[in-house]
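pinging the channel bc i need a second pair of eyes. not urgent but kinda urgent?? the chain im working w is below, pasted from the shared doc
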Amino acid sequence: MELIWDGLVQAFFILLNLDPEVFEVCWLTLKVSGTATLLSVIIGVPLGCILALSRFPGRNFLVSLSNFGMGLPPVVVGLWVSIFLWRSGPFGSLGIIYTPTAMVIAQAVIASPLVISFTLAAVQQISPRLRLHLLALGANRRQLLWNLIKEARLGLLAAVMAGFGGVISEVGASQMVGGNIKGETRVLTTATVMEVNKGNFDVAIALSVILLALAYGVTALLTSLQQRRSSYE
């Protein structure tokens, strides 16, 4: 209990003193995870809608692949992204290994299956009669898709929360492709692991508390938006 208390006190003083290094790590954590989540939404929402609204050979395989991807181990993602981005890899000439960009790519790969599967489930729950009604009113494909997305917006916000929660908490892929470089690729999860390895458990607990507060703050904001929209219906 003393160790936990020391960590909480340490977290309080870090925030109180506005430690610039910690705030830099927090900002990079938000920037990387936020960008990765946005990228996964751009990729995942259209693909989820296509899988929900279309019937074609191989669809069931793609759906099962998406559901399988929800449990994809981050270290496996980190390994394969590293292989592709190493100097000897197919995209090594880009020179983005051990940069925030590589971390965004790895996290987007982790989050995209979550967004696809949640979007698929949300759109599939919409009554088929709504789609027929919109078509009967003369809606074109774009108008149909837009109205279905609006109808499924609560589920889509859950998809965003799932994607964000899946990447802000992961450490394996970020450390493998980012390298935990001070001032460049160090985020809260990798910094916490580093402090544990150094035996600074009070600092590690402090960083973990800050990470939890950060993750909860973003999730609470999205939840508030989701429930406010729900109350309008």
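so The chain has one domain: 2-232. and The chain has eleven helices and no strands. — does that match what u expected or am i reading it wrong
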